[in-house]
Amino acid sequence: MKKPLNQTCYKFFSCLSNPTRIATIEMLLEKPMSVNEIAFKLGEEQSMISHNLKPLIECNFITSNREGKKRVYSINKETINNLLKIVKNHAEKYCPKSGKCIIKEN
Predict the structure, then answer these.
(1) Within 10 A of 80 (CB to CB), how many other CB atoms are there?
(2) Which of 26, 75, 77, 84 has minimal CB crowding within 10 Å?
(3) Mean pLDDT of residues grouped by 10 in the chain (106 residues)?
(4) Which distant-in-sequence residues (6+ apart) come within 8 Å of 56 by Cβ?
């Protein structure tokens, strides 16, 4: 049985609504990294980063590959690149003042 769209959208957007997860995605756009590299660059505890990687993996926004004893995380370029293009387009068109989206009244 398929999940209703509202459940799918909720999981999708709630996964991306966390600032640490967005920062992680931004870092992984540069290059694949281990959890320790991400934690160091963000100035956060490794356990907190690991906790935030799990939902990103579950939603397939990122993937992980084992390299020796460590896992290296990469973004799902097909999804993330297209998603970021949509966000950028929306922000440029509808959020011209300090990132605050403007809703036009009819």
Answers:
(1) 18
(2) 77
(3) 79 93 96 97 96 96 95 96 90 73 52
(4) 15, 21, 24, 25, 62
Integer-rounded Cα Rg, in Å, for the chain is 16
Q: For the chain, how are helix, strand and coil distributed in percent, rounded to 5? A: 60, 15, 25
What domains are defined for the chain? 5-79 (1.10.10.10)
Give CA–CA dist 79/24, Å, rounded.
Answer: 15
pTM, full prediction: 0.81
Class of residue 102 by CB neighbours under 10 A (exposed 0-12, middle 13-18, buried 19+): exposed
